Amino acid sequence: MGLFGEVVLLPLAPVRGAGWVIRQVLEEAERIYYDPAAVRAELAALEQRLEAGEIDEDEFDLLEDELLDRLEIALRRDAGTDKGTHL
User: Fold this and answer.
1) What is the per-residue DSSP string for 17-41?
2) Do residues 55 and 49 make contact, with C-beta atoms less than 8 angstroms apart?
3) What pLDDT score was predicted for residue 82?
4) Sign of the CA dihedral running 31, 34, 36, 41
5) What's the N-to-C CA distance of the chain in angstroms?
6) Distance (Å, rounded) from C-alpha 84 to C-alpha 77?
7) Is the CB of residue 8 less than 8 Å from the CB of residue 1?
8) Region 79-87: what's the mean pLDDT?
9) Which of 14, 21, 41, 87 fits a 20 to 30 Å CA distance from 74?
10) Does the pTM of the predicted model rise above 0.85?
11) Contact (CB, 8 A) for 42 and 66
């Protein structure tokens, strides 16, 4: 893009900068959400809640399925086979 194009788009620089920041925040949130260690820790905490009687078997099964889905996605991402999945 030439100098004229840069001058014309200069007022949009804060918007482009905000877009970059939003993308970075989303990527970090997604990285944390799909972190296998974090998902395993959540599974362990979920099992403790079941054993403590805080949740019943049905709720446990539902939440466990969601966590196992996240773990599967995380492991596929680590293997490099599922780079296109996003939040």
Assistant:
1) HHHHHHHHHHHHHHHHHT-HHHHHH
2) yes
3) 47
4) positive
5) 33
6) 9
7) no
8) 57
9) 21
10) no
11) no
pLDDT tens by residue, 4-15 = 677 677 777 777
What ranges do the domains of the chain cover? 35-81
Q: How many residues does the chain have?
A: 87
Tokens of 36: 């296998």
- Residue 81's pLDDT is 57
- State the chain's mean pLDDT as an integer: 86
Residue 16 confidence (pLDDT) = 77
Report CA-CA distances (Å) from 20 to 15, 16, 23, 43, 87: 9, 6, 5, 33, 17
Of 27, 39, 32, give the one whose Cα is nearest residue 66. Answer: 39
For 32-48, the pLDDT digits (tens) are 999 999 999 999 999 99
Query: What is the identity of the amino acid at 83?
Result: K
Distance of CA 11 to the CA centre of its chain: 32
